[in-house]
Amino acid sequence: MFKQEFQGGTHVELFTAQGSNPAAAWRLTSPHIVKRYEKRVKSNVFLVEGGTQARMILPRDEGKTLHLLQPNLLLQVCLHAERNFSIECSVLDAEGSRRRLIFSTAQREPKVSNLHARLPLDRCPREQWMNLCLDLASFTSSCFGVAFRTLDVVSIAPCCRLRRVFTMQRAPMDTTESRLNGGEPIPRKCVFNIEAQAVTLVLTWQKLSQLAQLQRDVASLNVNPAAVRKRSDKKAVPGTKLPAPPQTSRVHRPRPMLYTRHAQTAGPFVASSAGASSRVSPSFAASTDRGSCSALGEGEVVRQGFGEGADVLLLQSVGHGGWPSDVRSALRSTTANSSSSS
User: How far apart are CA 299 and CA 105, in angstroms?
Assistant: First the structure.
């Protein structure tokens, strides 16, 4: 479709909601995909809704391919507050094999097979306009071990509001990160107005793999808020004798507490209690590569300032024996590394 067209400019536009028939080149599989005016961005957008089979597919004809050479796919999109959203990209690699990259907000961690990869979009903000950039070269090389050649098919599934779709040779600057790195500016004709308060989110394989590791570390704590609530809801009946606690020779250690907050909003920390049998592994305590270990009130900070978009502190009361010896040694090594780096 674009094979004979010039692709050496700043971008190649695949979709815009402006004009009398903006989706002429796309195949729409649901009557619920309609155009409407969005006051917030002061332009027309496409409302992509419908059932599980609703899609916006480019190109319209199944036998054709896009043959897009620029590896960064950008969508100017606003996701629904609760419903899921997904986009599927069919790419051709350097060996001539067709691969599928499926990005979805319903996916929690990357899953890769020989011919397709399912990748999470749970970092995407909800009900906020954004330039969502997918680095297809990064995902193709990391998931399948071969270089990216062309983007051939794009399929967008509900639920979202869509303003533009285009490709760029270089990724733009990610405005959601605390440290802003250099990047290609968004083409002038594609820039949002100031009232939209749009952000730019650039997703690469490295960022998603770091987030997946963070989620596995948190899951290893066996946090079970429902069990904690169930225990706290039990009330003593007047006139009854409470059972004595079971006798045990094991040394009691307080449960670790996990405190999380979003790094961008810098809001208050949200606490959640780990399970009674939780243990903090030395690898979890010593795996930080930035931030510092320091005292905070009656607890100790094991890990802070890691991951993309979140600060996580793991605290444990120093009473009743304090940290296990293996974790304490990991804390010492982490603190020494942080002091030497600073």
Answer: 35
Closest CA to 135 of 204, 66, 209, 183: 204
Measured CA to CA in angstroms, residue 303 lies from 36, 141, 311, 315 at distances of: 46, 31, 9, 9
Element (H, E) at 103: strand 98-104
Look at residues 255, 262, 247 and name the one whose alpha carbon lies nearest to residue 319.
Answer: 255
Name the residue among 74, 41, 43 with its Cα closest to residue 184: 74
CA distances from residue 322 to 228, 315, 334, 338 in whole angstroms, order as listed: 22, 11, 17, 22
**pLDDT digit string, tens, across residues 69-119:** 999 999 999 999 999 999 999 999 999 999 999 999 999 889 999 999 999
And the tokens for 99?
Answer: 């691969």
* Cα separation, 151 vs 156, whole angstroms: 14
Residue 15 has a CB neighbour count (10 Å cut-off) of 20
Alpha helices in 130-173 (DSSP H): 136-144
The candidate with the shortest Cα–Cα distance to 174, out of 133, 205, 140, 206, is 133
CA-derived radius of gyration, the chain = 25
d(CA 161, CA 276): 44
- Residue 272, C-beta contacts closer than 8 angstroms, at least 6 positions apart: 223, 225, 257, 258, 260
- Range list of β-strands (E), 121-191: 130-135, 148-157, 160-168
Torsion angle (degrees, nearest 10) of CA 79, 84, 85, 89: 160
DSSP state of 285: H
The region of weakest confidence among 33-37, 89-93, 211-215 is 211-215
